[in-house]
């Protein structure tokens, strides 16, 4: 079987093209969509993500307000900064780069982001929205990017067996909810799952969000399955790789997402889409 690579770029481009007109309409109504990015310290991963997100926002005409605080910032200073953004009517989305330093009470900081501006689905309000379908807040960008990728490639999840490896609050669990919403039959695996390979082989669509370099291989994939690799890891040579051993599943999977160039390249476009949606909601 020939395995098709599902690349992220066309998906990202399509999302951006779909929001440019909406951004123009908002601006015509005197609403300039604005994303605030809060970074604490100088971690290279955070700076890299901030830079990518900023470029993406600017490319579609979304304003970026960058708030950079010292790694030694106090709890109260950070609380004040996040509260100020929540109360700032010119800011429509708040992206808090995480994890925060250990001395910070992360849960408390997240709770200060108002759900209307929680474009990466961090707050309890967004989780209620996702899990109870109340429409409050937003789903996290990465699992949303997976849904965009499947949708763009006309892969219908309705009635399919979807197996998700990983149950974190940022990827695995919200992914399960988004798949359920689209009527998939969902299994969520984790480190205590027995006979992971055989559970994964039951998947029509396998989503790997494990955080272990190339752990998922041909033994986990049934013939013709779609494999979505959410992982971002470094291999033993320091090169970026996913949770899937892509070479190993070639010829078995019908489709697989590459790393880099797959799901990760869609997330900032989803972020932009969420900022636009947040800005639109305030005008309704
Ligand atoms: P995480 O919080 O570390 O969660 C990993 C999950 O994998 C946990 O649920 C864990 O199970 C499970 N797991 C670990 N080892 C396992 C094993 N041997 N067998 C079965 N399950 C196992 O990671 P995360 O934040 O969800 O991120 C997952 C991956 O996605 C990482 O590579 C991360 O870098 C990447 N990521 C990518 C993006 C993107 O934009 N593409 C965004 C966020 C994250 P337990 O719950 O039992 O511990």
Describe the structure.
It is globular and about 50 Å long. β5 (161-165), α7 (172-181) and β6 (185-189) form a beta-alpha-beta unit. Strands 1-11-8-7-5-6 form a six-stranded parallel beta sheet. The termini are far apart. The chain has helices at residues 9-28, 44-60, 75-87, 106-111, 124-132, 141-152, 172-181, 196-200, 246-249, 267-283, and strands at 4-5, 34-40, 63-69, 93-96, 161-165, 185-189, 205-208, 226-229, 233-234, 240-241, 255-256. By secondary structure, it is α/β, with parallel strands linked by helices. The structure holds NADP nicotinamide-adenine-dinucleotide phosphate.
Low-confidence stretches: none
Strand content: 15-25%
SSE pattern:
EHEHEHEHHHEHEHEEEEHEH
The biggest beta sheet is recorded as: 6 strands, parallel
Give a short summary of the structure.
Helix content is 40%, strand content 15%. It has 284 residues and is of the alpha/beta class.
Question: Characteristics of this structure?
Answer:
binds NADP nicotinamide-adenine-dinucleotide phosphate; globular; six-stranded parallel β-sheet; 284 residues; three-stranded parallel β-sheet; 15% strand; alpha/beta
Helices and strands, with pairings:
Elements (H helix, E strand, L loop, with lengths): L3 E2 L3 H20 L5 E7 L3 H17 L2 E7 L5 H13 L5 E4 L9 H6 L12 H9 L8 H12 L8 E5 L6 H10 L3 E5 L6 H5 L4 E4 L17 E4 L3 E2 L5 E2 L4 H4 L5 E2 L10 H17 L1
Helix pairs in contact: 1-10, 2-10, 6-7, 6-10
The site of NADP nicotinamide-adenine-dinucleotide phosphate has 26 residues, from loops.
